Amino acid sequence: MAVRTRSSMTDLALVAVFAGMLAALTLAPAIPVGALGVPITLQTLGVALSGMILGPWRGGAAVLLYLVLGFAGLPIFAQGAGGLGVFARPSIGYLLAFPLAAVLIGFLTRLVLRRISAPALRGLAIFGCGLAGSFVFIHPFGITGMHLVGALPWEVALATGALYLPGDLIKTAVAAAIAVAVHRAFPDLAAPRLAMATPTEERASAR
Asked: What Rg do the C-alpha atoms of the chain give, in angstroms?
């Protein structure tokens, strides 16, 4: 029981720390891009790191906690935004995609960690995991948001979305390099926690 409690507390702490990291990354200057001025930020770096390092559920929970705090009114989104008013911004699609992307990136990264041990191949594969989250969720949701909320024609929204691709490639590569180093130092970090303590641990905790 004591081991299970310590595990839960560790998980909660990691979720809170990574949610805080996401909020801190928005302090970096944002670069407005395109007709709607949806900015390039470091948020996607934080989303990728959350999934790659924490795994799908804790990584997704960290990003979801970040969004909940921002929707509740804390000014922790890009350019100091916060509150329910962000739903009227053309960048809302990107925000809503973040937790889904973190879950997918975390799930794929967990598979990579189980099957690939060579550092170079592992880094390349984790980079691919980050791109999967970006191309499956972040870019489609972001483009849709610019079309529906920003009233951009689809072709203009697609062209605007393409402006974010070079930066995303760089941020994903940085996240993959960091994740490889972290998992080398802490190989059990992304593994699911044991649901039960071993008999030795149970006897020790009962003393």
From this structure: 18
Strand, coil or helix: 31 = strand
Q: What's the whole-model pTM score?
A: 0.88
CA–CA separation, 147 and 151 (whole Å): 5
Contact 161, 38 (CB under 8 A): no
Alpha-carbon distance of 159 to 140, in angstroms, equals: 12
Helix axes 43-54, 119-133, angle to 10 degrees: 120
What is the band of 175 on the pLDDT scale with cuts at 50, 70, 90?
very high
Which tokens is 83 given? Answer: 């509150």
> Token pair of 14, please?
């990691």
Tokens 């790659």 sit at which residue?
52
